[in-house]
């Protein structure tokens, strides 16, 4: 009798089970990514709220602007302070990094924020861990009066918090929807300048983070840019 070779393969039921398993795995991965993104958005939003509360809390207690308060008088009220500003009543000193970094020293040594910042006069390097807080993506935060943000009209100097460089565009869009109007050139949250910022690369973004071909411009999710930055206007 001739040998009859049986054909081995997957049944429709087995194939269906495999497809269901693949679908569950993909769904779990996508859901996990959504949860990670949401956690990062909450982290940045909480960080912004914390800085804002600390800034106004400091002013309420000392009747002085942190960072702008001159070092001698600040040290008399806050032990350990070594740097300060020009007492103009605003964060707008001629040497921007001096007041911008003194701000974190004043607020940390007064107990308004965590950390122990030491102030300085130059842009922090990657190795500096005691100059300024960083966001979840390792970008430095900066609070100062500038016009370094996108605007549908003409930007003017306003106190704003640089949220920190290196933020993926999808995170910024979700954050904007959470705390503002979802648009990069209007409302309280704005896209940072792509060049020419007062604090250089620390406070700059990438032009590709925004799709300017639409009216109004929108966050460019399709571009998937990972090195974006934004500011929050106080």
Question: What would you say about this model in short?
Answer:
The chain folds into 2 domains: 139 residues, no CATH class; 70 residues, no CATH class. It contains 4 helices and 6 strands; from the N terminus they run αααββαββββ. A 4-stranded antiparallel sheet has the order 1-2-6-3. It has a two-stranded antiparallel ribbon with strand order 4-5.
Layout: helices, strands, pairs:
Blueprint: H1 12-62, H2 71-77, H3 96-109, E1 142-146, E2 158-162, H4 169-179, E3 189-191, E4 210-211, E5 218-219, E6 230-233
Antiparallel strand pairs: 1-2, 2-6, 3-6, 4-5
Helix pairs in contact: 1-4
Describe this structure in words.
The chain is α+β, with helices and mostly antiparallel strands and 234 residues long. It has 2 domains: 13-53 and 137-234, no CATH class; 64-133, no CATH class. It is 35% helix and 9% strand. It has helices at residues 12-62, 71-77, 96-109, 169-179, and strands at 142-146, 158-162, 189-191, 210-211, 218-219, 230-233. The strands form 2 sheets. Strands 1-2-6-3 form a 4-stranded antiparallel beta sheet. Strands 4-5 form a two-stranded antiparallel sheet. A hairpin with a 6-residue loop joins strand 4 (210-211) and strand 5 (218-219). It is elongated, with a radius of gyration of 24 Å. The mean pLDDT is 92.
